[in-house]
Amino acid sequence: MIQHVLITLLIGVAVGYLARKMKIPGGFLVGSLVGAAAYNIFFGAAYMPKESKTVIQIVAGGFIGCIMEKSDVQRLQKIIKPIVFMITALLVLNLGGGFLIWKSSTMDLLTSLMCIVPGGISDTPILAADMGADGPKVAVMQIIRQVLGIGVFPGLIMLYDKAKGAYDIEGRGYVEKRKKSKTHSTAACLCTLMVATVFGLIGKFSGIPSGTFMFAILSTMVLKLYFDFAYIPRPLKMFAQILSGSYLGSTICMADVMELQGMFIPLAIIFSGYALNCLITGSLIRRFCSFTRKESMLITTPAGASDMALISADLGVNNTDVVILQVVRAVVVMTFFPQLMYVIATHFN
Question: Domain range spanning residue 302?
Fold first, then answer.
């Protein structure tokens, strides 16, 4: 078994690194998933222990807990209105789109709901698999959502803004530089991993759905905001992505690949759902929260907080509130949405 695990990981690292070099969004996850899946489909020998899921959730939860800064918390009372608009709209989208996917495909309800959760592409599939959903299908849908958020929606937003012809006045948002913690020491990293591990394991044995992930996020966030002594380096997050992709890929067989051919309708639902959310919720935020059209639509775009910082700058948007809102989305969605989807799916089944 050790030999199979090492080979699976080596293939995941190699293909993940290649995908990263090709600048594919979520390259390490996508590449490792494809590499491990190909190895399993053609040789039937890919293997990753189930304990990998716990490790991934602890590291990923710790990483998310570290992204909230004290300066972000100080801004929350100023941007509570767009937060309410954003989270409410995402919840409606998640539930509505999830039920549509469930009714129009062969996927079970929990898998359908998790496919459209606006969370991390490396975190959501593992949480879905841990809850009993179809992790590989969720991974494919989440990867496509991320591609839309990074590679498609920003361009469409620019075209739409230009087509409207009217230029908004500058939004009254926060335009100072976002203050980031400078605690990037080895000691802080070890402390963060220890806290995330202890509380993640408490969450695991608590019986709460995705408790490992939720407890790791909340405990690390407390460590970051109250003690400013939390840090997880990006290479460790990349390792978690490779581990996640390798695990999910090792569960894929030829039958799963054949089933992917019937996923056109779910993909269409995800694209149209996020497009409508971008237009409708973006319009509401623009009208009631004093953001420009581009800012409002970028706030509703399904991309990551770090990706959004780069995308916003490329589109000429320098309002830091856009990034802070994406950070809030990541923390709130990944902490509470999976549990809610699990409860709803259990109720309907």
Answer: 53-233+263-348
Structural domain includes residue 251: no
212 found inside a domain: yes
Quote the tokens at residue 112.
């359908």
pTM for the predicted model, two decimal places = 0.77
Token duo for residue 245? 């992709």
Q: In whole angstroms, how far apart are CA 343 and each of 68, 109, 113, 303?
A: 27, 11, 11, 26
Do the domain assignments include residue 92?
A: yes
Contact between 114 and 133 under an 8 Å Cβ cutoff? The reply is yes
Say which residues have a Cβ less than 8 Å from residue 52's Cβ, sequence separation at least 6.
Answer: 243, 244, 246, 247
Q: Is residue 294 part of a domain?
A: yes
| pLDDT tens digits along 93-150 | 999 999 999 999 989 999 999 999 987 777 788 889 889 999 888 988 888 887 777 7
How many structural domains is the chain composed of?
1
